[in-house]
Write a structure and sequence with these properties.
The protein is α/β, with parallel strands linked by helices and 531 residues long. Helices cover 38% and strands 15% of the residues. The chain contains 17 helices and 15 strands. α14 links the parallel β13 and β14. α10 (284-302) packs parallel to α11 (322-335). The mean pLDDT is 92.
């Protein structure tokens, strides 16, 4: 067994405990990056077919770790390194996870030295190593891991950094590591052999640092067919259950139409100008239907006593395409599946697609997740996802929630603050949502966030943060941010200042009040369903 792999999702906080916010035990982005390699392992193909990823999905999951807090999860990570002795360590990291990724790479090098090739990927690398729009030259944000190494801000702990589409790249890197290890060549010397990657499909950049100089290789943009990518539940299984689906296991599913959102809101790290355009939209419904079939099959195999459900991770379900949505209705109507599912829409999409949503409801669609960033969009410069209308944004949001209640579709909301709204605006929004809950028993608050400035391929308002320090140091702010999905004391959105501790506590208290009402409504709905 020459190829030994461990993959982790780096932690975004130095210490703490899980708060009352949206959580999943399945690191979906990491699974997506590794799915082609896992497919090769599952089917006994090449070096992956002889690696430690062969065998059952349960055994494969033991080599994959989702880390939330560095201090609490590091002992588990260290034990995994000592048990598996990997020669290929893949670390996936969002921006606030960069300090955690550095700490994990340091631990791996301490234990394994040059016998492990540490590869960093994920959205932080992709947002910080990119092609300049005009010259098409490779550019590095101030927080590019390669630039940080070259300039001496961090140690040279990452042997390779991957920006962009990594599915086929990761599989090929594993093959090279297998060859080097078999020839007793230190795998940390892999950069001498990376010219073999030139024809790997996908839009990607890989790089490393050599004598304090950044070296990169750019992919040729060779397209690959999203229709043949394996659904992530097949090689990795499902271990998460969203309570909205009444005890069913919940798989993360994707139509693979885009790496981000079709909208371009300036504050958002999912924005289309950063994440890229739509891809293969004409066959998106078929891909999603195939994923639902896999979800039902895998959950029946692994947990036959539990039902199947799925959450579609598209920023908006099938990009909000009427044609694709109606095609999905047709496929599910004739597919005979017993899978309940949910997905994301914007408020305006809900109002414009009520008839389509009603048709989706008949084939298992009973949960919608929407984002309400502010009560007054004009106070933060507007949002791309909001269509011009005669009535106010929050009035439209209430009409959307009322319509979903009438269809018996549960509605979850994510709240985002810290973009320049006033304290009064925040409190007014909480009061408005509470009125909706009193009248409609909806929506259910799922997460709160305080806006964090992301690198955004240089579109960061000129702040040029390096992100090498934890976004929120240990102390009262870290405790106060416990319920927040994403938040930071050190990296507020450009043009804004960090919140006061009193502001954070006020928002957390108001959020918990909404949670109490929501939990009571869920209990009421379950009793009604049981009756």
């Amino acid at each position: 067994m020459a190829l030994r792999v461990v993959a982790i999702s780096a932690p975004d906080r130095p210490t703490g405990k899980l708060g009352r916010t949206l959580t999943s035990r399945d690191p979906a982005s990491l699974f997506n990056a590794c799915r082609y390699a896992a497919f090769l392992a599952d089917n006994g193909i090449g070096p992956w077919g002889e690696s430690n990823w062969t065998g059952s999905r349960q055994n494969r999951r033991k080599t994959i770790l989702l880390m939330d807090f560095l201090e609490e999860d590091m002992p588990t990570f260290e034990s995994l390194l000592k048990k598996e002795r990997p020669n290929f360590l893949l670390i996936g990291a969002m921006t606030l996870c960069l300090p955690g990724a550095i700490a994990c790479a340091q631990k791996a090098k301490e234990i394994l030295g040059d016998k492990v090739c540490v590869v960093l990927g994920g959205w932080h690398a992709t947002e910080t190593i990119y092609f300049e729009s005009r010259s098409k030259a490779v550019k590095h944000h101030a927080s590019s891991p390669l630039r940080l190494i070259a300039e001496g801000h961090i140690k040279p702990l990452f042997d390779i950094v991957i920006s962009g589409e990594g599915e086929y790249l990761i599989a090929k890197i594993g093959e090279i590591i297998d060859c080097l290890d078999g020839r007793n060549i230190p795998v940390s010397k892999i950069s001498d052999y990376l010219s073999l990657l030139a024809d790997v499909p996908g839009n990607w950049i890989i790089g490393w640092v050599e004598s304090d100089q950044i070296v990169t290789i750019e992919g040729k943009g060779i397209p690959f067919d999203r229709n043949i990518l394996v659904p992530i539940c097949e090689p990795f299984g499902v271990q998460t259950s969203f309570n909205v689906f009444d005890g069913r296991l919940t798989a993360h599913t994707f139509s693979d139409i885009a790496r981000g959102c079709v909208y371009d809101c300036t504050f958002c790290s999912e924005r289309s100008s950063v994440r890229g355009p739509l891809i293969q939209i004409d066959t998106a419904a078929e891909r999603l239907f195939r994923q639902f079939k896999s979800v039902e099959k895998v959950i029946k195999e692994d947990s036959p006593s539990l039902g199947a459900s799925a959450f579609v991770e598209d920023s908006t379900l099938l990009a909000g395409s009427n044609m694709a949505l109606l095609r999905l209705v047709d496929l599910l109507s004739n597919g005979g599946l017993n899978v309940r599912f949910g997905g994301q829409f914007t408020v305006d999409q809900v109002l414009k697609k009520i008839k389509i949503i009603q048709a989706l409801k008949k084939v298992g669609f009973d949960y919608i997740f929407i984002g309400i960033e502010t009560g007054r969009p004009e106070s933060i410069g507007g949002m791309s996802k909001i269509h011009p209308g005669e009535d106010q944004w929050l009035d439209r949001a209430e009409r959307a929630i009322e319509a979903l209640t009438g269809l018996e579709i549960a509605c979850g909301i994510s709240l985002l603050f810290g973009m320049g709204e006033s304290r009064q605006d925040r409190l007014s929004l909480f009061r408005r949502i509470r009125k909706w809950q009193d009248f409609h028993n909806s929506p259910a608050p799922i997460s709160i966030n305080w806006a964090v400035q992301h690198p955004l391929r240089g579109n960061d308002g000129g702040v040029s943060f390096r992100y090498t320090s934890w976004g929120t140091p240990v102390g009262p702010y870290l405790d106060a941010f416990q319920d927040f999905g994403e938040a930071s004391l050190l990296y507020p959105i450009a043009g804004q200042i960090a919140p006061t501790l009193a502001e954070v506590e006020e928002v957390k208290t108001a959020y918990r009040e909404l949670l109490k009402l929501s939990e009571a409504a869920i209990i009421k709905r379950k009793r009604k369903n049981n009756d």
